[in-house]
Amino acid sequence: MSPDTLFAAGLFAVVSSVTPGPNNTMLMASGVNFGFRRSQRHLWGVNLGFTFMVLCVGLGLHSVLDRFPQFYELLRYAGSAYMLWIAWTLASARPAPAADTDGGNTPPTIQPMGFWAAAAFQWVNPKAWVMAVTCMSTYLPPDAGMAQVALLAGLFMVLGAPCSAFWVGFGQAMRGLLQDPLRLRIFNITMALALVASLYPMLTS
């Protein structure tokens, strides 16, 4: 893989990872509701889960799935249903008291997404599929071996992690402005609506 191709792939990884989407919307909401430390499992579930997905696509999963287009339909509607459930959970949750959000005796009303849930979410995330397929079909040479596939997947992990962390950190920085329960409730509803809006391109494609 030439340095120019690697640079272009890295640029694609940064731009696609840092722009708004379901993952970043949920990570920012987690930063607001739970802070940076408690969002770490969610953060690494996203990054390692997506890295594994890119690796699988590069090793031929996309070619296999092209033979079964009905599987894409199943993913599309299953992903939509799951994202609607997440949006409803976020919008309807009662904000936790300030004393509880950092580990008080009373559990918070909502909980941070765990590592495995965040990793599994990548497989029903429409933006993740677009990113993985675009990356491998555009930057992977036709005669590429395992090492080049792993290099591209690792590129997403190394460059995508700080992009995801930025959204969690941005949410953490907003916590001071959202201490008021009403403001936090409005924020959570807004994030839930953003998740629902992100379904439009997938359902109309």
Characterization of this structure:
The chain is mainly alpha-helical. Helices cover 76% and strands 0% of the residues. The chain starts with a helix and ends with a helix. The relative contact order is 0.23.
**Span of the ends, CA to CA:** 32 Å
Classify the secondary structure makeup into a structural class: mainly alpha
Helix count, DSSP H or I runs of 4 or more residues = 9
Spans of at least 5 consecutive residues whose pLDDT stays below 50 are 98-108
User: Compute the gyration radius: what is it?
Assistant: 18 Å
| Biggest beta sheet summary | none
Mean of residue pLDDT? 83
SSE string: HHHHHHHHH
Strand portion, in percent?
under 5%
Number of strands: 0
> What is the 3D shape?
globular
- What oligomeric state do these chains adopt? single chain
Helix share bin:
over 70%
